[in-house]
Specification:
Largest sheet: 8 strands, mixed
Number of helices: 12
Strand order of the largest sheet: 3-10-9-4-5-8-6-7
Order of helices and strands: EHEHEHEEHEHEHEHHHEEHHH
């Protein structure tokens, strides 16, 4: 992998010297003297800070000078920069964040996990196609089951968005299994769970928070007396395995699907291990040619492309 490191060269260079990789043959420094701060509005990346590291990096992919973008920066700015600098894939109106979620029966894909808070049925239909391609790559499932997150399994249950989306998904060349409820998703009744970004992000953050609460309660319970502490020490490896199940570091980051290029969004507090794995994931996306799979499926769907033009 050839790495193009985008940012303030004056701040980066001392660190590269420290780790003795300043003149590494597979590392190129790309200067960007502006930074999108976490408190900045999302559109600032393409309006007021056109030389920010996020914008410059997205430009590199958009111009074909790089194949993938990995960032742990401002999520909204990355979304805007990727959409307008890298452009969208043919037939796709909005990019979506796809997240790998653990369950007792194996992992599943949640899409959209926060890129779009207001969606039309056509957008969710496109998310389903993108989620299917992602599931084929990461879960190794040839014909993944696609479920629509709703408040009931019946076709008429849900709001107007989910009811209209249900109708569209029924007509598409995907393995649509119908609605799935919140208590179904961790039973892995679907390999891909489709929803709008508002619901997806709320679900994702609730799950993350609850996982932390469980670990806290478990720690409290296991340190109440000497006998329990001894038992906890003996089960140390089991707890490590438990922690690793939902550890985002193993995946590195979540892909922003639908843009014309590979874009991986990492957590803002990512460790070196997480960044390393995000780069590995980006390479796998390029190698798998995931965007080619998405474009072909969108074209095959027909209905999605036609309605996309009408919208």
């Amino acid at each position: 992998i050839q790495i193009q490191l985008v940012g303030d060269v004056h701040r980066i260079t001392p660190l590269l010297k420290k780790y003795q990789i300043l003149n590494h043959q597979r590392l190129e420094l790309i200067y960007a003297d502006q930074v999108v701060e976490m408190g900045d509005p999302s559109t600032i990346a393409i309006k007021a800070k056109k030389n920010s590291s996020i914008t410059v990096a997205a430009n590199l992919v958009g111009k074909g000078e790089s194949e993938a973008l990995v960032s742990a920066g401002h999520t909204g700015a990355l979304f805007v920069a990727a959409k307008f600098k890298m452009k969208m894939l043919p037939g796709i109106e909005r990019p979506a964040i796809a997240t790998i979620m653990p369950s007792p029966k194996g992992s599943f894909i949640l899409i959209d996990a926060g890129a779009n808070t207001d969606c039309k049925p056509i957008h969710l239909a496109q998310f389903a196609v993108m989620g299917e391609a992602f599931a084929k790559l990461f879960l190794g499932i040839h014909h993944p089951r696609i479920g629509l997150l709703s408040v009931g399994v019946e076709e008429l249950k849900g709001n107007e968005l989910t009811k209209e989306t249900f109708k569209k998904l029924q007509t598409m060349p995907i393995n649509f299994i119908g609605n799935v409820e919140g208590h179904d998703i961790f039973d892995k009744k679907a390999d891909v769970v489709v929803c709008d970004g508002f619901v997806g992000n709320a679900l994702l953050k609730t799950v993350e928070s609850f996982a932390k609460a469980i670990m806290f309660w478990l720690n409290e319970a296991l340190t109440k007396n000497t006998i329990r502490i001894t038992g906890a020490i003996l089960a140390k490896e089991a707890f490590k395995e438990l922690k690793a199940i939902g550890n985002y570091e193993e995946y590195g980051g979540a892909p922003l699907l639908g843009v014309n290029g590979i874009c991986i969004k990492c957590h803002g507090s990512s460790s070196s291990k997480a960044i390393k794995n995000a780069i590995r994931v980006a390479r796998e996306f390029v190698k798998f040619k995931i965007n080619k799979h998405i474009t072909e499926k969108i074209s095959e769907s027909g209905l999605v492309v036609i309605e996309n033009k009408m919208n």
